[in-house]
């Protein structure tokens, strides 16, 4: 009620209720206080702003595109990966949400002094492994009996795929994730404190006719050093300053190595088509340019310099002796 504007009739009714004893001022204050109370679960602290969640979503949408390209090339089959959800939850809740037996990869990010957890649904993992081993991409469920060869194949495949995370995070931080652990039972994996807030990015994954989820778990302690960089304001400013500067440097390098046609015009002549058809070797054409005057040197179609024709070794050459006035203006136009 504190945020509402009362009409005169409502004010009169309220004063009447207080004066007649139907409602007391204490009850009004109590109701107002109760409305201001908000339930807050300290075990599920929201430590990331919506702005930061949006930035993480953008980063991993790019990562999903990179993974789609990588796995499509590696598996030589239809692969589609996209971001389904991005949530912040306690680590304990994330561990409870994954299957009892699944594929769990732990990556260490030394630059941020933390670890990243990646959980791959067994259906997806086995379909990928079957394709790598030369199969059709069928999915099996024998995760409890993984052989050493199967474990090695899976680890290497996902380790190479996760290298794309470095490129996806390139605009925010320089990271180098390294696979340090492979596990199938989440109960044996304790990366951080159970109550620690984590961001879970769920990727909807389709491999051939098999579908499942890939979940990436990012602890708050890992992201804390780069939290300011996850704001949209910082991201846009960085893009405008550093990004544009880098683009200009790259563009400048490309322009410097670009090939440009250079031509020297020694004059021109106008003749009839009938005369042109009768030309033979040894015929002489009269040009509109004196032999002792400088020739015009063009860069592309723009006159830039004047020169003197001659011979260098066994080749025809032109020596630059001056600049053409108005060449800069023509180039800018």
**Chain oligomer state:** single chain
**Cα Rg:** 36 Å
- Tell the overall outline: elongated
Residues in helices, as a percent range: 25-40%
The count of DSSP E runs of length 2 or more, i.e. the number of strands, is 10
Task: Assign the structural class, choosing from mainly alpha, mainly beta, alpha/beta, alpha+beta, or little secondary structure.
Answer: alpha+beta
Overview of the structural elements:
Keywords: Bacterial flagellum, Cell membrane, Cell projection, Chemotaxis, Cilium, Flagellar rotation, Flagellum, Membrane. It is found in: Bacterial flagellum basal body; Cell membrane. It comes from Jeotgalibacillus proteolyticus. Belongs to the FliM family. It is a single chain. This protein has about 325 residues and is α+β, with helices and mostly antiparallel strands. It folds into 3 domains: about 10-40, no CATH class; about 45-235, 3-Layer(aba) Sandwich (Chemotaxis protein chec); about 260-325, Surface presentation of antigens (SPOA) (Roll). Helices cover about 40% and strands about 25% of the residues. It has 11 helices and 10 strands. The protein has helices spanning about 10-20, 25-35, 50-75, 90-95, 120-130, 150-160, 165-170, 220-225, 230-255, 275, 325-330, and strands spanning about 80-90, 105-110, 115-120, 175-185, 195-205, 210-220, 260-265, 295-300, 300-310, 315-325. The strands form 2 sheets. Strands 1-5-6-3-2-4 form a 6-stranded antiparallel beta sheet. Strands 7-8-9-10 form a 4-stranded antiparallel beta sheet. A hairpin with a 4-residue loop joins strand 2 (about 105-110) and strand 3 (about 115-120). Helix 5 (about 120-130) crosses helix 6. The protein is elongated and about 115 Å long. The two termini are about 65 Å apart. Residues about 325-333 have low confidence and may be disordered.
